[in-house]
Predict the structure.
Amino acid sequence: MTIDPTSFPSDFIWGAATASYQIEGATHDDGRGESVWDRFCVTPGKVRGGDTGDVACDFYHRYRDDVKLMRELGLDAFRFSIAWPRILPAGRCGVVNESGLDFYDRLVDELLANEIEPFATLFHWDTPQVLEDEGGWPERATAEAFAEYAEAVAARLGDRVRYWITHNEPWVHAWIGYAWGEHAPGRTSEADAVAAAHHLLLSHGWAVDAIRRAAPDARVGITLNLAHAYPASDTPEDEAAAWQVDGEGNRWFLDPIFRGAYPADLLERNELVAPFVRDGDLGAISAPLDFLGVNNYFRFLVSAGAEGPRMEGNPEAQHTDMGWEVYPDGLHRLLVRVANDYAPQAIYVTENGAAFADVRVHDGSVHDPERISYLSSYIDAVSRAVADGAPVKGYFVWSMLDNFEWAMGYSKRFGIVYVDYPTLERVPKDSFYWYRDLIASRRGMPRPSPIAAA
Ligand code: FCB
């Protein structure tokens, strides 16, 4: 599939995304405190192969070379996250670790010197362990600490970072971390997950306020993991099951953020009649945003089972190395639906990509035709959403580098750059050159006129 570059506006942002714990390594350097992921990784049986983020891609020491690669790629923007325990090793203000801030200061300057726009995410799951020891995200105090952290970071970087993302995928952190126990902190309580989700949202609202105070021109958003829920058939039962899945995964976060209320059907099922939702919380959560970040990898195909909604597989489809179905129309549907139902000012696809079992061949190169095909079909889906009026302003491939894929350790490779972990050598894959050519092909193009676009 060839993508027509004129189907994107000429100011469309082409980016690549990463997260602190997945790439930085240097977990003991320059006063960084312990994060819940450091603790989880050394808990036996939690992470495949006993892998940890101690070294990861060593981005902390190699970021200059990696920014050079980004420049070669022609990236407009780089999405990274800031490690809270580097900035506030004790979780809260009081002790601000300036050398932690210095690292992001240097990174931001390096990006800007290379004409790459920094997109900074404040939280990509690496909570300071001290806060988890005091109860973690199910406690309101953690949301309060997050607002202090947001303020400290925005005060230092707000003069140069224009795009801020408060949280990455609060659903994943709340459910997989607190209810399913498969991510840090590894708890297995539904009630904790529900409380954590509320406090993540609340802290998002407070952080929006803190960032705007420190950096009045900042553009602020949040990144959600969203997936369109398709009913497996058009029976009312399957449709109701798909709506329920949509509620639990998508509307649980979209509604409070854009409508200032939790969805009525979730409230009816009593999932949210909870003492931790206080007066004024929903007002804070629904602070106006400049953009919504959407992470999308797959869709849901849902049928009505005896014990509630059931996820169906699609044996006909191609699947990635994560076992995720390749279904680009799901991204198109999702973007159009979010635009229609919630009218965000702008949408950035802040993550999309695929893991495949990449190998280096005899000459050392890495051929990844499946990833090229995945990316081109999903980027094509984005262009169709743009044509249908969704205000999508940018796309970030996950990921710039192969990295620590959470509970799967280093066994899953999502990068467009291969990382040889024993030597930490970087090897751009074929998809890197494919993405470079796509980005280059639209440079200097005039913005399509409305007539040409119609
Ligand atoms: C998302 C995460 C990201 C990465 C991709 C594959 O859920 O935000 O860190 O692990 O999945």
Notes: Residues 19, 22, 168-169, 172, 225, 295, 351, 398, 405-406, 414 surround beta-D-fucopyranose (CB under 6 Å). Residues 320 and 355 are 6 Å apart (CA to CA). Residues 446-454 have pLDDT under 50 and may be disordered. The longest strand covers residues 117-123.
